[in-house]
Amino acid sequence: MKILDVRTRPPFGSIRDGMFNNPGRELFEPEAFAPRFGMSVGESARQRSMSLFIQEMDAAGITLGAVLIRKSTGMDNNDLARLDAAYPGRFIGIAGIDPLDGEEALRETEHFALKGACRGILLEPGFCSTPLYANDQRIYPIYELCQQHGIPVFLSFGGYVAPDLTYNSPFIIDRLALDFPSLKLVIAHGGWPFVTEICHVAFNRENVYLAPDLYTMNVPGNRDYLASANYFIPEKFLFGTAYPCVSMQEAVDYYRNWGLRPEVLPKVMYQNAADVLGIEEPSE
Predict the structure, then answer these.
(1) Which one of 80, 106, 132, 235 is most buried, counting C-beta atoms within 10 A?
(2) pLDDT tens by residue, 223-259
């Protein structure tokens, strides 16, 4: 079975620095964070080793990894091309865009996702220097550009990605999906803890997808995610590890043993994400 991890941050260049060097956010260092989900981190994360990362990726059976650049932690979109050059065919670039950059945000979206090799963009409105709600009108030109050109938008939305829970309200995504009905919206962190509500939004809005990643792992509400993935919206769930927050092998094992129906598991682990990202299988 092929596996596509839609949320990974390898220990490479600014991506490594942006995940491991965040003064004042020690609670979210992988080795402190993983036990809260009943998980541990891989040796590659402990050693900040790219060679170990590739070994662990292979051992876990992960075919492709979508690398989401987080502008809020100083990651550089240009590292996506360097990563691809160093490890061709292993990664999919998702460019980080800061909506507070105004016209520059639009230029970056065009440069990396429209004219470049990236297959989507990541927005983290609640992590902006001035936190924004995801339906803030200042972001709408970016949504409009992405809708026009079929660029999927990943939104960090759920968990610890905003000053307070109002920023994670599923009503925001419901309204956003109505305003941009043909824009593919991937809800990274799956809107947790508003699990039943965000599952309803994904059911009701054709363009909304859920990638709860580690928020399926031993947390309140994970059985509701499972019921939705199995029956309610099996075409809307995307697998993600949230590496380096948890071990890739443990994340894959968790999803394999979570209780997904056999016919649903390949969709969640690969095909749904491939469809969203426009990845076509090579002809025989």
Answers:
(1) 80
(2) 999 999 999 999 999 999 999 999 999 999 999 999 9
Tokens of 256: 């394999």
The tens digit of pLDDT for each residue in 194-203 reads 999 999 999 9
Helix (H, G, I), strand (E, B) or coil at 140: helix
Question: Which stretch of DSSP H or E encloses residue 33?
Answer: helix 30-33
What distance in Å separates the CA atoms of residue 96 and residue 78, rounded to the nearest whole number?
10
**Alpha-carbon distance values, 18 to 11, 22, 66 (Å):** 9, 7, 16
Answer yes or no: is pLDDT of 283 > 60.
no
**Token pair listed for 23:** 């003064």
In angstroms and rounded to an integer, the radius of gyration of the C-alpha atoms of the chain is 17
Is residue 11 within 8 A of residue 44, CB to CB? The reply is: yes
Q: Among positive and negative, which fits the CA dihedral 7, 10, 14, 20?
A: positive
Q: Counting Cβ atoms within 10 Å, is residue 121 exposed (0-12), middle (13-18) or buried (19+)?
A: buried
Query: How many helices and strands (H and E) does the chain possess?
Result: 13, 7
Is 282 within 8 Å of 77 (Cβ atoms)?
A: no
Q: Hey, which residues does 209 pair with through a beta bridge?
A: 186
8 CB burial (10 A radius; 0-12, 13-18, 19+): buried
CA distance to 42, 53, 156, 273, per residue, from 11 (Å): 12, 8, 20, 23
pLDDT at position 21, please? 67
How far apart are the C-alpha atoms of 71 and 170, rounded to whole Å? 24
- Contact between 227 and 197 under an 8 Å Cβ cutoff? The reply is no
The first and second tokens of residue 268, run together, are 């969640």
64-68: strand order across its sheet: 4-8, 64-68, 91-96, 120-123, 153-156, 185-188, 208-211
- Cα 66 to chain center, whole Å? 8
